[in-house]
């Protein structure tokens, strides 16, 4: 049996797009050629991968099993090609990385700038995702590694300590809570909240905390970014929760005040997750080692600073 990587890539595209025509467009081949390749793949494997009807295609259980196997095989093939290129021409290549918004806004800009200044031939493809999606992307080999909040995500993944951050409360200037040095969630839940996007760790934390206190969480509005959250808080639509260093980016230009949270969950651990450090291409492994190195004590990005 000779499995064709092109057919496997096409099969993955069909599974992700849920349509042969869209997958063919994505893979830059004719729809008829794509249908023929899928039929030949089924013949080679002696199994039906799709049920076909006038309404389109429906993957069979065998297709879902093959999806994981195909991603792993193509990941290994891509890894061979990347590593050989890197050995032949020095530190160069492409790194696929996913991270949550906390890491992206607080730590990664300076770290990536330092790494890419040393290795100008390296390309880093960074995507923002929520923590559950990050773990899934790494497990499915659609990313080399990811940075997310510490937690239980399942799958055969390894975790390395990355950085610690602190959640704080922000409120409009003059809000009653800004008169306090620190605030508890019991005090904060007396007011409307501006929430983060659905599925975010911060929203889940707020919901859990409100349930434990047997108090309602009044989410007046939800937004998809920290800058939008700060703008809504500054407009008086509610108070919000976000990482301290992310809030500091906007505190100087918007009418918001940050207040320390008197809650144990306000101190968080961010971790780097991967399938295996040894299996990473050299360029990805070098970036991981750069990211998890202890920060420079002089002007370290995670050093505590004053709340404004």
TrEMBL record:
The keyword Transcription regulation applies. The lineage of its organism: Bacteria, Pseudomonadati, Pseudomonadota, Betaproteobacteria, Burkholderiales. PROSITE patterns: HTH_LYSR (PS50931). Belongs to the LysR transcriptional regulatory family. Residues 1-60 form the HTH lysR-type domain. Transmembrane segments: none annotated. It holds the Pfam family LysR_substrate. It comes from Comamonas endophytica. This is LysR family transcriptional regulator. Keywords: DNA-binding, Transcription, Transcription regulation.
């Amino acid at each position: 049996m000779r499995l064709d990587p092109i057919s496997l890539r096409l099969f993955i595209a069909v599974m992700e797009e849920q349509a042969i025509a869209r997958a063919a467009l994505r893979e830059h081949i004719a729809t008829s050629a794509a249908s023929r390749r899928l039929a030949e793949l089924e013949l080679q494997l002696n199994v039906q991968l799709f049920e076909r009807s006038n309404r389109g295609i429906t993957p069979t259980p065998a297709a879902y099993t093959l999806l994981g196997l195909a991603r792993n095989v193509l990941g290994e093939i891509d890894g061979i090609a990347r590593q050989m290129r890197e050995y032949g021409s020095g530190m160069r290549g492409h790194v696929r990385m996913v991270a949550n918004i906390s890491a992206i806004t607080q730590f990664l800009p300076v770290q990536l700038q330092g790494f890419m200044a040393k290795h100008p031939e390296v390309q880093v493809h960074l995507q923002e995702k929520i923590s559950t999606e990050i773990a899934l992307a790494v497990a499915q080999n659609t990313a080399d590694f990811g940075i997310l909040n510490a937690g239980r995500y399942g799958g055969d993944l390894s975790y390395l300590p990355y950085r610690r951050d602190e959640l704080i409360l922000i409120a409009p200037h003059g809000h009653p809570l800004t008169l306090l040095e620190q605030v508890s969630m019991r005090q904060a839940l007396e007011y409307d909240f501006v929430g983060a996007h659905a599925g975010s760790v911060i929203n889940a934390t707020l919901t859990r905390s409100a349930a434990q206190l047997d108090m309602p969480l009044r989410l007046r509005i939800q937004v998809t970014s920290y800058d939008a959250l700060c703008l809504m808080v500054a407009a008086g639509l509610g108070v919000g929760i976000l990482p301290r260093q992310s809030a500091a980016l906007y505190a100087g230009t918007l009418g918001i005040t940050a207040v320390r949270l008197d809650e144990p969950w306000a101190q968080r651990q961010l971790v780097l997750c991967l399938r295996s450090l040894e299996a990473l291409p050299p360029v990805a492994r070098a970036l991981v080692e750069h990211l998890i190195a202890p920060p420079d004590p002089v002007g370290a990005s995670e050093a505590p600073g004053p709340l404004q």
